[in-house]
Amino acid sequence: MSWDTELTALTTRIAGPLFTRPEPRQAFADLVRALLADVPRKNSWQLADHIGHATANRFEHLLDRAKWDVDALRDEVRSYLLAHLGRADGVLIADDTSAIKKGDKSVGVAGQYCGLTGQVENCQVMPMLTYASEVGHAFVNRRLYLPEAWANDGERRARAGVPEQVVFRTKPQLVADMLAEELAAGTLFRYLCADSGYGRDPHLRAFCHEHAVGYVMAVPTDLPLVALRGGTEPAGHALDRLLALGQAGIWERRSCGTGTKGMRVYDWTALAVTVAGQPPAPGYAHTLLIRRSVAAPGEVELFLAHAPAGTPVPELIDAAGMRWKIEENNEHGKDLLGLTQYQVRKWTPWHRHVTIAMLALAFLTVMRAALPTGADAAGDEGKDHLLLEAPAG
């Protein structure tokens, strides 16, 4: 079956129960197809022009005024991904991405840290959740971070259509909310992976302990651990003691996956630890993974693992190496599928655009996974290029 036929079958199946009228069904299918095409700037007008619409009205109506359940679409994206990528040893990966915006009207926009530039920008921040297995990886859930200044401003909320039940939540709390949805949906995964912005949050870790969720998350050196002789100490002190022991017999060189430049090889070691005030789930244990750069031995990163007691350390290292996959999803979503190229300002249109872009990425991921083994000869970049050109409208 051709990719065009696969795409038509997918959008037809999803649109059937999602919309009551044929017009939004067709606009939905057209928008997914346009996002997959080679359009320089993926706003409603250029997407409409590519697909052959005289104006952007149909897409704008679909995103704003049409009546349909965007969370039902999110659930369809999840079901589609899990049907093709789901594995018991899959992982969920949390990270946030940013969309730099002008003005102060777009929902959630504020002067805040922007991962794109590494400094404070006028932007929206989007905590995202990726599902990854050995077959592929794509977004499975999303949130829009609403800063306190927005959450507490009734006038701005009303203009942007923020629902009354939406209250201020930190980014780690939003990830915990998404994780709860994945648990309720029965998503198959073994670990949650994240960077230290999430791993340092005790409430997110507590959620995982309470629900017996395994995780491998980067943590800062001030993570409080129970000291060998009582009391507490930061994880950095345990690291210092380990480094003082010297080289022999401490480090093991291992790959934690393949990146764009080949195998990602580091020196690793591990310590059984007790996190102060945060016991693991029954039958689970905490392990501190220490990763050291081969090229620059002074560059060290810490990971806290929460896994069933007796879990082999190489398995935890493999999980730690999965974190970068969400960065690839962020890059492809933005650069290739228009994830943040929307021109919408309100709550509902934002969620609709982002979720439709998630479906487009899910389709590419599933089609890539279905490529014959011989296609691997082109390399990862070659496969992405093939995928992006195949569905052109």
TrEMBL record:
Q: What is the top-level taxon of the source organism?
A: Bacteria
Mind telling me which SUPFAM superfamilies this protein's record contains?
Ribonuclease H-like
InterPro entries noted in UniProt:
IS701-like (IPR039365), IS701-like_DDE_dom (IPR038721), RNaseH-like_sf (IPR012337)
Where does the Transposase IS701-like DDE domain start and stop, copy by copy?
18-225
Name of the protein in question: SRSO17 transposase
The species is: Nonomuraea maritima
